[in-house]
């Protein structure tokens, strides 16, 4: 029967294909000599990128498995200066802080205190979006998915007028959407304040205490902080820079809007260096 033989042939081909995939196994890791060549190329790429982006200074680390295989500081702390960046230099890590907040939420999920698809309103009773249907449907995972329907960076400016985290969270109900829920990407900081509220409710501790006790201390990130004073008083610290037109300008440490970063701490308020970040 020809169909029977076709069937046998197909099964045999699939079996051979399966064996060939299995034989490939894990990708071969580069030898020490090959790795050194890769790192030389990477360093050239890093230096080129720094020039292309007009970045005064940066620090880079590469972690493979449990091993730190490369760490280097590039450039200077202040545009036009000569004080070099070191591996201990403190930076504001900006929105990379969001990953720390997401990790705390993931810990709550692992502990069974919340689920990714739980409605936020079940955990944060005063949570409210502009549309009542969105309020009901908004899940914990949506807090970090950047698809809320609000315009990008909605209500971020409130903090510049002295409003705190609670005011920003309350103002979500007045942020009129510009797209339907979950249909468009639009970057937000505000919803990470709700994620922090969720963390604080289930732990009875502030977002800052949770970051310190559940991440910084276990990972020995002793140089990392979450407040403006620590950044301003640090000795080995990068200056603040801002692009103004086609120029990079240096901002003073008492820049009047610096507090914004720390009110929005769960979205962008961690200070750290490359030594600590390698542990993370």
Automatic annotation (TrEMBL):
InterPro entries: AmpC-like, Beta-lactam-related, Beta-lactam/transpept-like
Residues covered by the Beta-lactamase-related domain: 46-280
PANTHER family, sorted: BETA-LACTAMASE-RELATED DOMAIN-CONTAINING PROTEIN, D-ALANYL-D-ALANINE-CARBOXYPEPTIDASE/ENDOPEPTIDASE AMPH
Protein name: Beta-lactamase-related domain-containing protein
Taxonomic path: unclassified sequences, metagenomes, ecological metagenomes
